[in-house]
Amino acid sequence: MKHMETVRLTASQALVRFLENQYVSYIDMDGNEVEHKFVKGIFMLPGHGNVVGFANGVEQELKDMVVYQGKNEQGMALAAIGYAKQMRRKQIFACTSSVGPGACNMVTAAATATANNIPVLILPGDIYASRQPDPVLQQMEQPHNLTISAHDAFQAVTKYWGRINRPEQVMTDMISAMRVLTDTANTGAVAISLPQDVQAEAYDYPVDFFKKRVWRIDRRPITKYALEQAVEVIKNAKKPLLICGGGVRYAEAHKVFKKFAEDFGIAFGETQAGKSAIEWTHELNLGGLGITGGIAANKLAHEADVVIGVGTRYTDFTTASKWLYRTDAKFVNINPSEFQAYKMDATPVVADANEALTAIGEELKKIGYHTDAAYAEAVAAYRKEWFDEVDRLDHVVYTDKESFTPEINDANRECVEKYIEDTGCKLCQTTVLGTINRMIDDNAIVVAAAGSLPGDMQGLWRARKTNTYHMEYGYSCMGYEIAAALGAKMACPDQEVYSMCGDGSFDMLHSELITSIQTGHKINVMLFDNASFGCINNLEVGQGNACICTEKNMLEEGVTNGIHKGKVIQVDYAAIGAAYGCKTYTVKTQEELEAAIEDAKKQTVSTLIDMKVLPKTMSAGYENWWRVGVAEVSTKPEVQAARKAIEDHLYEARHY
């Protein structure tokens, strides 16, 4: 018998050599066959748990992959997610850290990736498999089970988790990792823990293990039965609504989705992940849908008798806690994931969006299906109403206390004048957003994730080019904005990238702004500073509660209840950015804003525009309701009223 050819490598060397030889192939949105390397590179934050063993593997085996130094483990992993999302899941980064807190810092990022079905490979150092030197530095011991380390926490937030306790396990674990990372239905974070001793241990690996492997990201075809069932539902629709989910973008189904809408005259609403698959100017584009959506899509959603969801997970925001749609509306869900396709008691079409929409379209053409003139008139009217509202919000100007009504006119209305008194600034948030939207390049990419900006942007942002709207809202991870902007810039180096970030998110995590300076990847941080956790204050107060820990005012002496009503904290965020090496601007007027945006375009280093905006001047939301946990028993009449409103809406919402 002929013996297989082998090569003796450490586990770390083998892992890096394997990653260098992984490729993907797929059909892009233009119908072209594409093949390229799958792993672009590695983000590394070194520590004692990976700087010896794994770093040696990188030094010896690295060929085409690039290596970047992270500044915070969560931040670098979020940058990797931003990269993969902007690449429509067709290329990824790996992230490696030391054992202990470095590894645990990536748990949040892993959850962010998995919630959004975005592939990222996490390779943290781990405790010793031999246990001989235990307890080692940063080891969390569990007396009842010595096999457990802090890394077991990754099991709850990944789509695949492994621990390589012997060097030969690299082979099975990495093949399983690649299977999940390239799975259109079930991708997400993959974490492979690397014990410190095993990283350096050697094995005689088969040479064939390191051959070029091409992982096909295929288009799953629609079955005959699913096709028949879907056509049966859609052909009777009088007021249909298409939902353009993130799956449209990841499946490269932009053109097929657009053609389907045009062929049958069906208007569509956009989810946060699906927005910018089609330009906002398209006559059938009703814009954002759901709690953070706009007037047009939500009005049609209320009336729709058939909803065709393409690549959407139907989160509570997309469905307004299942209240947005008629209880008798029928759903057809097109998704490669069976789990997602069966939601909303739908007719499931477990298939690729291109394949399914093409096949369904061919059958609908045979029977001559098309929406009628009354439907088209209603769609046009909804779009006009939306355009008029966007134009209004683009030009909101503070006048004076007596005649100015903020968009969020709640019990904390006083904070508007307090902000003006303490800071001297009067800019309104929607006006600032509209100015940015108007002034930046058509192909510029905007990145956001949390706070009030997702609500403003899904409803009001006008994407003039495809794939220019980058919103993480599956996990709404504060701190994603700047890190992911770096990742998006790495994916699209020839496009300007703007991180749309509130002061709350900036405070939490902006470490990869330093990385952007270090690596020469220019990003533009648009920092909306209203000295508060604005959208959460709106939610808190709107449900009858006091302002507990949601305003960034000075703590007054003797106050212990979390209600901070002292002077507004005035953080010089521009100075922070300048200290890192950014070109920065402080903006307090419309003229300063416009000048800063124009000048930032001319810069070659990352920029930060510190924009002081009034609280309560974000958009208020349209035709929606969100189920939140309002107290069932309270001494406050305001809370009692909010609870009653919740209960009333529950009877109107679908229950599953």
UniProtKB/TrEMBL annotation:
<dbReference type="Pfam" id="PF00205">
    <property type="entry name" value="TPP_enzyme_M"/>
</dbReference>
<dbReference type="InterPro" id="IPR011766">
    <property type="entry name" value="TPP_enzyme_TPP-bd"/>
</dbReference>
<feature type="domain" description="Thiamine pyrophosphate enzyme N-terminal TPP-binding">
    <location>
        <begin position="39"/>
        <end position="140"/>
    </location>
</feature>
<dbReference type="GO" id="GO:0009097">
    <property type="term" value="P:isoleucine biosynthetic process"/>
</dbReference>
<dbReference type="InterPro" id="IPR012001">
    <property type="entry name" value="Thiamin_PyroP_enz_TPP-bd_dom"/>
</dbReference>
<dbReference type="GO" id="GO:0009099">
    <property type="term" value="P:L-valine biosynthetic process"/>
</dbReference>
<feature type="domain" description="Thiamine pyrophosphate enzyme central">
    <location>
        <begin position="227"/>
        <end position="360"/>
    </location>
</feature>
<dbReference type="InterPro" id="IPR045229">
    <property type="entry name" value="TPP_enz"/>
</dbReference>
<dbReference type="InterPro" id="IPR012000">
    <property type="entry name" value="Thiamin_PyroP_enz_cen_dom"/>
</dbReference>
<dbReference type="InterPro" id="IPR000399">
    <property type="entry name" value="TPP-bd_CS"/>
</dbReference>
<dbReference type="InterPro" id="IPR030817">
    <property type="entry name" value="Myo_inos_IolD"/>
</dbReference>
<comment type="similarity">
    <text>Belongs to the TPP enzyme family.</text>
</comment>
<dbReference type="GO" id="GO:0050660">
    <property type="term" value="F:flavin adenine dinucleotide binding"/>
</dbReference>
<feature type="domain" description="Thiamine pyrophosphate enzyme TPP-binding">
    <location>
        <begin position="450"/>
        <end position="610"/>
    </location>
</feature>
<protein>
    <recommendedName>
        <fullName>3D-(3,5/4)-trihydroxycyclohexane-1,2-dione hydrolase</fullName>
    </recommendedName>
</protein>
<keyword id="KW-0786">Thiamine pyrophosphate</keyword>
<dbReference type="GO" id="GO:0005948">
    <property type="term" value="C:acetolactate synthase complex"/>
</dbReference>
<dbReference type="InterPro" id="IPR029035">
    <property type="entry name" value="DHS-like_NAD/FAD-binding_dom"/>
</dbReference>
<dbReference type="GO" id="GO:0003984">
    <property type="term" value="F:acetolactate synthase activity"/>
</dbReference>
<dbReference type="InterPro" id="IPR029061">
    <property type="entry name" value="THDP-binding"/>
</dbReference>
<dbReference type="GO" id="GO:0016823">
    <property type="term" value="F:hydrolase activity, acting on acid carbon-carbon bonds, in ketonic substances"/>
</dbReference>
<dbReference type="GO" id="GO:0019310">
    <property type="term" value="P:inositol catabolic process"/>
</dbReference>
<dbReference type="Pfam" id="PF02776">
    <property type="entry name" value="TPP_enzyme_N"/>
</dbReference>
<dbReference type="GO" id="GO:0000287">
    <property type="term" value="F:magnesium ion binding"/>
</dbReference>
<dbReference type="GO" id="GO:0030976">
    <property type="term" value="F:thiamine pyrophosphate binding"/>
</dbReference>
<dbReference type="Pfam" id="PF02775">
    <property type="entry name" value="TPP_enzyme_C"/>
</dbReference>
